[in-house]
């Protein structure tokens, strides 16, 4: 629950009945009328989609318990009551589940980042597979067997991160991530999930912030790992000439490229070091024959998957599902929507497909075109607003694709799904960062005549309840006997 721990508006202001509840800070249990702490011993039945344990009190009221695992007996302290359910956290584990492990991070109990570190890694991944199956089942879509699992390392995997900066009333500087269910910053001196090159910068950056004349003008820091090493982007609310020189000296001493993103309304990016040519790699469609990786150039602010290892697995899986290794894409028309800087577009073009790649951000469209040229791949890059169904319909009519690839933001691709139902194509590969909107759009495609044939869960954000997923849909209109050509 994203709003847990955040002060809600009063009932008359919000206009939402039945959702307002009483709340105490985390760790301070709610007191009932007689002064007795609102805690109870319960048995956890299962995990909710967001990773919290689910139990019921003697009256049958549902209780969501943070930090609890299925089968455990815990003393749960209630920190919010609602009309239909209560929210709580574990005060004491009375009987632990076999899957409970010691969290590897010292900041686990305070930092809001990794909410499943108390659950063994294999169990985390089984939970994510179950969440995808359940969300699809609610839409009447059955998954045959377990979704494929695309996973990588459990630590040191995250290649981009945003860290908040705050100066408190006593002048102390905090650099880190938000506390769980709070806007308060937890100072982080070491992060187990950050790529080592980024983790090594946390201490020096915290120390450097204390040397600035105007640290309050720093909103946050963005850290990115590229093929060229770590990069720092300073979100500077207002420029300060003295601190400009200090940041330049820091970058020179640490040997890292550093940029200022300055301004509140329309921030501008300025490199305080020689501007680097940032890039990352994705697998070639011809990797089985020893072909080199493809190189994607990017700039600060461009979308970049946080987990490079899992992203490679996603690209390789997409190519395998679409038959790239068997030459099934050669000469085929492919429409890649929400294409970014070419994460899927370039490998598809490398497989011989005729790719039209569409992205809403014009700067990324330019970089996508540059990436295709740099890798020697023919590709048409276009800018379009894919939230408009008419735009999606026009693209489908013009490209007449045999494969459509979707990799939308969290809002999903509802307008595109509508257009795909009105003008079906043989195959749709849907890559999603939000399983709920994926399930919604999948239901629309299935009701429009498509059949889901493959599914996978990508553990992009290890130790969190967040999951990425991939589904492949086929339309029976183009089903042919084995060996027959789709072109008839």
Automatic annotation (TrEMBL):
The TRAM domain, residue ranges: 31-92
UniProt-annotated binding residues for [4Fe-4S] cluster: 105, 111, 114, 191
Residue segments, region Disordered: 1-38
Amino-acid biosynthesis listed as a keyword: no
Catalyzed reaction equations: uridine(1939) in 23S rRNA + S-adenosyl-L-methionine = 5-methyluridine(1939) in 23S rRNA + S-adenosyl-L-homocysteine + H(+)
Binding-site list for S-adenosyl-L-methionine: 305, 338, 343, 359, 385, 407
A biological process from GO: rRNA base methylation
Superkingdom as given in the UniProt entry: Bacteria
Keyword Transferase: yes
Catalytic site: 433 (nucleophile), 433
Composition bias type Basic residues, residue spans: 1-11
E.C. designation(s): 2.1.1.190
SUPFAM superfamilies in alphabetical order: Nucleic acid-binding proteins, S-adenosyl-L-methionine-dependent methyltransferases
Comp. bias regions, Polar residues: 14-23
GO molecular function: 4 iron, 4 sulfur cluster binding; iron ion binding; RNA binding; rRNA (uridine-C5-)-methyltransferase activity
Pfam families with a match to the protein in the record: TRAM (PF01938), tRNA_U5-meth_tr (PF05958)
Keywords (A to Z) from UniProt: 4Fe-4S, Iron, Iron-sulfur, Metal-binding, Methyltransferase, rRNA processing, S-adenosyl-L-methionine, Transferase
Family, similarity comment: Belongs to the class I-like SAM-binding methyltransferase superfamily. RNA M5U methyltransferase family. RlmD subfamily.
Function of the molecule: Catalyzes the formation of 5-methyl-uridine at position 1939 (m5U1939) in 23S rRNA.
PANTHER family named among the record's database cross-references: 23S RRNA (URACIL(1939)-C(5))-METHYLTRANSFERASE RLMD (PTHR11061:SF49), RNA M5U METHYLTRANSFERASE (PTHR11061)
Protein name as it appears in the record: 23S rRNA (uracil(1939)-C(5))-methyltransferase RlmD
Gene behind this protein: rlmD
């Amino acid at each position: 629950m994203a709003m847990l721990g955040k002060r809600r508006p009063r009932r008359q202001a919000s206009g939402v009945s039945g959702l307002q509840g009483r709340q105490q800070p985390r760790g301070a249990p709610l007191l009932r009328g007689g002064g007795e702490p609102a805690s109870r011993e319960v048995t956890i039945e299962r995990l909710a989609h967001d990773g919290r344990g689910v139990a019921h009190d003697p009256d049958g009221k549902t209780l969501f318990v943070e930090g609890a695992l299925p089968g455990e007996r815990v003393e749960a302290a209630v920190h919010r009551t609602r009309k239909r359910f209560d929210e709580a956290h574990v005060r004491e584990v009375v009987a632990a589940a076999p899957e409970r492990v010691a969290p590897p991070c010292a900041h686990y109990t305070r930092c809001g980042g990794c909410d499943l570190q108390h659950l063994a890694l294999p169990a985390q991944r089984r939970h994510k597979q179950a969440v995808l199956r359940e969300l699809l089942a609610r839409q009447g879509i059955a998954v045959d067997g377990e979704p494929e699992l695309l996973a990588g390392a459990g630590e040191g995997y995250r290649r981009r991160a945003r860290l908040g900066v705050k100066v408190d009333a006593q002048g102390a500087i905090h650099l880190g991530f938000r506390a769980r269910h709070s806007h308060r910053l937890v100072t982080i001196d070491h992060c187990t999930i950050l790529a080592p090159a980024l983790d090594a910068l946390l201490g020096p950056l915290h120390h450097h912030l204390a040397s600035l004349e105007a640290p309050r003008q720093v909103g946050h820091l963005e850290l990115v790992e590229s093929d060229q090493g770590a990069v720092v982007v300073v979100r500077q609310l207002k420029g300060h000439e003295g601190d400009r020189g200090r940041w330049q000296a820091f970058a020179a001493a640490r040997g890292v490229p550093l940029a200022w993103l300055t301004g509140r309304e329309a921030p501008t990016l300025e490199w305080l070091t020689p501007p680097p040519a940032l890039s990352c790699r994705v697998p070639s469609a011809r990797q089985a024959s020893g072909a080199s990786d493809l190189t994607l150039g990017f700039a600060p602010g461009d979308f970049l998957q946080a987990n490079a290892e899992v992203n490679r697995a996603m690209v390789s899986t997409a190519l395998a599902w679409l038959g790239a290794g068997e030459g099934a894409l050669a000469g085929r028309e492919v429409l890649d929507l929400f294409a970014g800087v070419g994460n899927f577009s370039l490998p598809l073009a490398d497989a011989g497909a005729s790719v039209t790649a569409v992205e809403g951000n014009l700067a990324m469209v330019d970089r996508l075109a540059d990436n295709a040229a740099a890798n020697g791949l023919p590709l048409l890059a276009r800018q379009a607003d894919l939230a408009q169904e008419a735009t999606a319909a026009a693209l489908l009519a013009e490209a007449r694709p045999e494969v459509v690839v979707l990799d939308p933001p969290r809002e999903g691709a509802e307008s595109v799904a509508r257009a795909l139902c009105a003008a079906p194509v043989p195959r749709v590969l849907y890559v999603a960062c939000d399983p709920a909107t994926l399930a919604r759009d999948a239901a629309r495609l299935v009701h429009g005549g498509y059949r889901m044939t493959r599914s996978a869960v990508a553990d992009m954000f290890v130790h969190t309840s967040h999951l990425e997923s991939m589904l492949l849909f086929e339309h029976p209109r183009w089903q042919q006997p084995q060996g027959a050509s789709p072109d008839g």
